[in-house]
Design a protein that fits this description.
Layout (H helix, E strand, L loop, with lengths): L8 H15 L4 H15 L10 E3 L4 E6 L5 E5 L4 E3 L11 E3 L5 E4 L8 E2 L10 E2 L6 H10 L4 H8 L3 H15 L1
Antiparallel strand pairs: 1-2, 2-3, 3-4, 5-6, 7-8
């Protein structure tokens, strides 16, 4: 058994969500309680990889349907319904299935071409149309003296795919 740590797709999205919560001021103790409560409430192992969660910077809310079928916000730590302005989803760019489980993530947004999809290329970041790994494109870009056209010709990619891959890799490195 090797000593390497590996994260699955659901783990990656959970880490991203926890990071977003922390950046908005949610404390570690609140996150721990919220994760445990959400696991029990929804019967899932990775509750923060669903699109149900919102924050006001202090508390974590789960969007659930109340008895009338209307969407409501539940303070997941206090288990009380909240009357709060609904904030935008923290999982911007994530596609979900009919069970609210994450399918794939578009880290630059859904109108861009970089996707992380566990069903394609072993979950590594790729350009969506052509399926070429973004890391490979970025390496080729450096080798081609920073020529987008050169890389596009080598790998039969659209220039837009090359630009998106390079932007993603730059953000990842930062």
């Amino acid at each position: 058994m090797d000593d390497k740590l590996a994260l699955g797709f659901q783990d990656l999205l959970e880490v991203r969500m926890v990071d977003a919560f922390r950046k908005r001021g949610v404390s570690w103790p609140t996150l721990r309680v919220a994760a445990g409560s959400a696991q029990k409430l929804f019967g899932v192992t990775h509750p923060f990889s669903s699109r149900r969660f919102l924050t006001d910077g202090r508390d974590i809310f789960a969007e659930i349907n109340d008895k009338s079928g209307e969407a409501a916000l539940l303070d997941i730590v206090r288990t009380q319904y909240a009357f709060a302005e609904v904030l935008g989803p923290l999982l911007h760019g994530v596609e979900f299935d009919e069970y609210d489980q994450a399918l794939r993530w578009w880290p630059l947004g859904t109108k861009r071409r970089v996707v992380i999809d566990p069903a394609r290329s072993f979950g590594q970041p790729i350009v969506s149309r052509e399926g070429v790994p973004t890391a490979l494109i970025a390496q080729a870009y450096k080798a081609a003296n920073r020529s987008i056209t050169g890389v596009a010709e080598w790998y039969e990619l659209e220039a837009r795919s090359v630009r998106d891959a390079i932007e993603f890799e730059r953000k990842l490195a930062a």
